[in-house]
Write a structure and sequence with these properties.
Layout (H helix, E strand, L loop, with lengths): L4 H8 L3 H8 L6 H14 L5 H8 L4 E5 L4 H4 L3 H16 L3 E5 L5 H11 L4 E5 L6 H8 L4 E4 L9 E5 L1 H14 L5 E4 L6 H16 L8 E2 L5 H13 L4 E4 L2 H13 L9 E3 L16 E3 L2 H17 L7 E4 L2 E3 L12
Parallel strand pairs: 1-2, 1-3, 3-4, 4-5, 5-11, 6-7, 6-8, 8-9
Antiparallel strand pairs: 10-12
Length: 336
């Protein structure tokens, strides 16, 4: 078994430097790369992490920054699915992961990440339109990929979905069903997803010639705000409610039932995310599937691209969404 670069070079018929370039992703001809990779695989060679760090300037460790309460990370199905996707892709790429949560202020977290000098790159959840942690990472030399868009920053690399278009689609679905007063319980104001989904809702309503005055109630992306927001909208005689996420819609369902109203006969109800529980509500929830785990995978792969080609410019990935119609809007319709 080959144990050193010299051994590998002798078996491959190339120089030690060429073997090093192959291991560290440097420039070599395809035929040479194939020959060296064949030797690496047959020799079961595993590069020493410290040696790779000295040779390439990269640690082989990626930072995952989710500035959320650590107690909520694995309780919230959105964050757990996103983290699972990132973890799976990083593991596939033989890359270590260092997780940063909301234990400290954003300013302190930024200072620690940039000051430690260990990470090869960072994936950060960019939910707020204004965020000193995200802004600081983008301004640094550390390769950074956002989950959540920064379209106004032409230098930012990000992975996201088109929240505006998706919210337009689900609202248009309610319009096509003949609903006349469609309310919206928003996500947290000041967030990328929350604000974009309001825009999509308003765009569909404007196109249909329907007023939104008094039909938008601020929420917090959670069940409690969904119940409170739906109560306000029911007082305004809505016949449909689009909620900014599935947890909000679950709360809205509680409020509708408390009024002894039926879904969808009296009030049609739709959400966003297509988390696992949405299909098991009674009635099952019409929602937007956005592939949360896929976003985590794509964020990790996008960071790999940045590390492999630092001069290649920003990468922007907008993943598709799908409207999943269930019985909360159309009675008797199976999920598809």
């Amino acid at each position: 078994m080959a144990g050193t670069l010299d051994d590998l070079a002798a078996l491959s018929g190339v120089s030690r430097a060429t073997v090093s370039r192959v291991i560290n992703g440097g420039s070599v001809s395809p035929s040479t790369r194939d020959r060296v990779m064949a030797v690496l695989e047959s020799s079961n060679y595993r590069p020493n992490l410290a040696a790779r760090t000295l040779a390439s300037g990269r640690s082989g460790v990626v930072g995952i920054v989710m500035h959320v309460d650590p107690r909520l990370l694995f309780q919230d199905p959105y964050f757990s699915q996103l983290l699972q996707g990132m973890s799976d892709a990083l593991s596939e790429g033989a890359t270590g992961m260092m997780l940063w949560l909301g234990n400290r202020s954003k300013e302190e977290t930024l200072e620690r990440i940039l000051g430690m000098g260990l990470l090869g790159g960072v994936i950060v959840t960019a939910y707020n339109l204004e965020d000193p942690l995200v802004d600081g990472l983008l301004a640094s030399s550390l390769p950074t990929v956002l989950v959540g868009h920064r379209r106004a920053d032409r230098t930012a690399s990000y992975v996201d979905v088109d929240h505006v278009r998706a919210a337009d689609t689900v609202t248009s679905h309610l319009v096509k069903l003949g609903r006349k007063r469609i309310g919206h319980v928003t996500g947290r104001r000041g967030t990328v997803a929350g604000e974009d989904r309001i825009v999509g809702y308003q765009r569909a309503m404007d196109r249909a010639g329907m007023s939104t005055e008094g039909l938008i109630v601020d929420g917090e992306f959670n069940r409690a705000s969904g119940a409170a927001g739906a109560a306000v909208l029911l007082d305004a005689d809505v016949d449909a409610i689009f909620c900014a996420n599935d947890a909000t819609a679950e709360g809205a369902l509680d409020a509708v039932r408390a009024r002894r109203l039926a879904v969808p006969d009296d009030v049609a109800l739709a959400g966003f995310d297509d988390l696992e529980f949405a299909a098991h509500l009674d009635p099952p929830l019409t929602t937007v599937r956005q592939g949360i785990r896929d976003q985590g995978i794509e964020a990790a792969n996008t960071l790999f691209q940045l590390l492999a080609d630092p001069e290649g410019g920003p990468r922007r990935v907008v993943l598709p969404t799908e409207l999943v119609i269930r019985r909360s809007t159309v009675g008797g319709v199976s999920a598809r």
